[in-house]
From TrEMBL:
Organism: Penicillium malachiteum
Protein name per the record: Mitochondrial outer membrane translocase complex subunit Tom22
Keyword list, A-Z: Membrane, Mitochondrion, Mitochondrion outer membrane, Protein transport, Receptor, Translocation, Transmembrane, Transmembrane helix, Transport
Keyword Manganese recorded: no
Its membrane topology: Single-pass membrane protein
Chief location: mitochondrion
Compartment(s): Mitochondrion outer membrane
CC terms in the record's Gene Ontology section: mitochondrial outer membrane
Top-level lineage group: Eukaryota
């Protein structure tokens, strides 16, 4: 069987020194506070040099309460899922628009360019006719000459 014994701290056994206003005064004896310097100051310097940023950030999770961590985690999950869905939708929309442009736009552009060539050729022929009429002002148009030759 285990027997428990109570060990009293020496600070609680001695009565504090009072003054005339019942205010407590600190004792001049500094030996009482020497035991707090031993482990904290020596070990912390070595551990800080070996500690990484990841270790520091992972230690911060103990500071934040679980409800706040849950809220932050849900918010981050919602943002990432929205981002993934947006990128997926954008990629699919870009694919549809680009293939539609190739299947519809390229043939239309080729037909438009061909039509512009025909219009340009007609203008050139009209300019050639106008130039011929200016060079020979007294002659009849070519259509009449061709019609007279046939008759």
């Amino acid at each position: 069987m285990v027997k428990l014994t109570e060990v009293e701290d020496e600070h609680f056994v001695e009565k504090p020194i009072g003054t005339k206003n019942d205010a407590l005064l600190l004792s001049d004896d500094e030996d009482d506070y020497t035991d707090t310097d031993s482990e904290i100051s020596d070990a912390s310097d070595d551990e800080l040099e070996e500690e990484t940023i990841y270790d520091r950030i992972s230690a911060l999770k103990d500071i934040v309460p679980p409800s706040a961590r849950h809220t932050v985690t849900n918010s981050i999950d919602a943002i990432t899922s929205f981002g993934k869905a947006s990128l997926s939708f954008s990629g699919k929309a870009l694919w549809i628009i680009s293939t539609s442009a190739f299947l519809i736009g390229v043939p239309w552009a080729l037909a438009y360019a061909e039509e512009e060539q025909y219009i340009q050729m007609e203008r050139e022929q009209g300019m050639i006719k106008g130039a011929n009429e200016m060079l020979t002002p007294g002659s009849e148009p070519e259509k009449n000459d061709a019609a007279q030759q046939i008759l």
